[in-house]
Design goal:
Layout (H helix, E strand, L loop, with lengths): L2 H15 L4 H8 L3 H14 L19 H11 L9 H11 L6 H10 L26 E9 L8 E8 L5 E7 L4 H14 L5 E4 L15 H5 L8 H9 L2 E4 L7 H21 L4 H19 L16 H7 L2 E6 L5 E4 L2 E5 L9 E7 L3 E6 L2 E8 L24 H8 L7 H14 L5
Helix pairs in contact: 1-2, 1-3, 2-3
Amino acid sequence: MTQKQLNRFKVLSLVIEGKVTIQEAAEDLDLSERQIKRLKKGVQQQGPESLIHSNTGRKPSHAVTDQLKAAIIRLKGQEPFINANFTHFQELLAEHEQIHISYTPLYKILTEAGLASPKKRRKRKSHHRRKRKARRGTLIQMDATPFEWFSTPEKFTLHGAVDDATGEIVGAFLTPHECLMGYFAVARQMLLNCGIPVSLYTDRHSIFVSPKAASLSIQDQLDGQQIPHTQFSRAMDELGITMHKARSPQAKGRVEKLWDTLQSRLPVEFKIAGITNIGDANAFLPAYIKRFNERFAVAPLEPDSAFRDVPDSTLVDHTLCVKHQRIIDAGHVFSFSNRHFQILQAALAPKTPVRVLISPAFGIKVQHHQHFYQVIPFIKPKKNPKPKAPARQIYTSLPDEHYFKYGHIAWPRITFDESNRDIIQILEDIFLKEYA
């Protein structure tokens, strides 16, 4: 018996002997008089054992069985669940193993087995928490994070955007490093799936802010000089999206918190799905984003959406691209990136300024007013150089082991389509450029 039960037995014994009244015993034990009478009757009939609850020492019928505990511990120590945090592991058990268990007993089972969650609960600095926007689409936070997404030492960069009002992911795309193509892909997903938001919140990366912006003083801006656009900020300006630049990671805390969650969960999901490369990962992300939003997104304060409809899907491709100004010659030929291209089916006067559009979606196009034209690579004939006096030749005898004498045999000649290679090289140089 416990000390509490012994105290009750002593008081009840005094009641039975008539030395203490029922009212005094109730005040002493902090029980009702009706309860004292019930306990007194039990002691008189069964003795002190009546004070011990009949379920004492008995395992509850709803308790987790030893077999289930062993199965949970075994699964947590195996791939692909070994790196999952406890909450994510609870969801994976229900989804893949049909084991439904609440978090508290799961936590107790794993901690008693000596297993710790890989997600550290470090103490965070307190920051002023900004209230969520009231309507969906009012503010979109966009950022990118490098991480070992495939559980290998190699890092890849995940670009993403999250709605401030609901916390839902509106776009995600994986590339080798932070680049313009990654942000354009995220913006494309957002525009086609949700619409055009009111504003965008980013950091001060050179993709969003031109490095020349720092050279403009306040007086220069008062004199009418404008901060130059980057290709991304120019595209957002054409869509009517206002861009805000954060000066600290804490200012865009929603997307920073998103990275913390995805870095814990997404590598485990990739491992379960057998994904080990960027192509498969980008094909997997849309379905995963839908499940993620169902799990973590919250309802906005106001039901009306601030997203605007995209008037035409072609507008997205013709906006989310790189644009440069060029002037054509009499043969409808212009130069770009040290290469020449000819405009097809166009009747434009020589020296007409045109806009060159470059995108992974359509390659290279030319825009003049509201008309778009296809282009093909063009090789200009080389001019005959003026004859030069023959230079004095000096002959040198090379040894037989020199590369020049056997290199053409050791390495086979590689052939390729010159025109396609030029266009692919231009696209890679522009959209997959690694920004420092």
